[in-house]
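Lecture notes, unit on protein representations.

Consider one protein chain, 373 amino acids long.
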Amino acid sequence: METQLNADQVAVRDMVRRICADAAPLDRVRALEDDPVGYDPELRKALAEAGILGMAVPERFGGSALTWTEMAVVHAELGRALAPGPWFASSVLAARLLARTATTDVQRAWLPGIADGSRLVVPAWLEPGGSARATGIALRGEKVPGGYRLSGLKRHVPCASSADRLLVLFGTDAGTAIALVDPAGPGVDLEQAFSLASDTQYDVRLDDVHVADDDLVGRPGEGWSHWSATLGEALAPLAAYAVGGAERALELTVDYARTREQFGKPLGAFQALAHELADCATEVSGAELIAYRAADALDRGAPEAGRLAAMAKLYACETFRHVTRSGEQIFGGVGFTLEFDIQLYFRRAKQLELSWWSPPELEDRIADDLLTA
């Protein structure tokens, strides 16, 4: 399976693959499961030195300002390696949101640090019992002189304990607002939550936490539109991450089917298994095409870019799930044991499918775009 990449994109791909091979081999992925920090400093340093952590940071703030297609290339390699860390959350989502809507002073304070690897900023948006829509933001901000006081609970916050700031979505009389909150500040309590993927997530409880007006990212009432637009774009590289994971899981399964013998012949010689692998290869190729088509549409500013990004994330995550599920079936019972790599991909495929808008939420976005066009 080959995507038609230009020379610069191939160079980016090869560079990130080398970094992951050196700093994020699968034994390090295993070692960092349920780790309270959630990333390897060596990988963070290597990604920063290569300009990857500044991929969505404008050049005037020290970033590399990669195109969406280049960011998709990066994430496909991160997905192949299952590279642990909040790189998508900080270097794509947070960086894009700050670049989109923050004041110049706030951008100067945080974007250069995201780019050079000295700062981590991650979103805190999901809440218990709420949807991933604006109506799910139950945390309210009480207006006080010079700012707001926040009380409530945020869930599934990536690497909150090692973040320098959280981008907290909260409700005001004017609508949703976003503020930078110090996770080590007074009134903030962190509790590690354990996920299917064993990645590093936290529940973040805010108890009468004061945020100053200067800590706001954009104006109150505009927070959800900025967040939704930012995440909607970022679905394209996230889809590429799923493609990279699915491609590598398929390679592992094909290698096993070629070498593992049953009843005197390789597993791949059984037609049912061979056809299942053929279906998986077809789906991976299709997922790759739609992921890069979405990224290209974003680069061109095409009107269908948002719909394509949602479609790409939906289909690529379904493909990642199917490929890893089929892999587990072909590996058999041993595939679920910790020493086999396929289980790492299987668990992360399901977690990714549910994260950053689940299938029903993506289907709603796609349908809304189709029906209101």
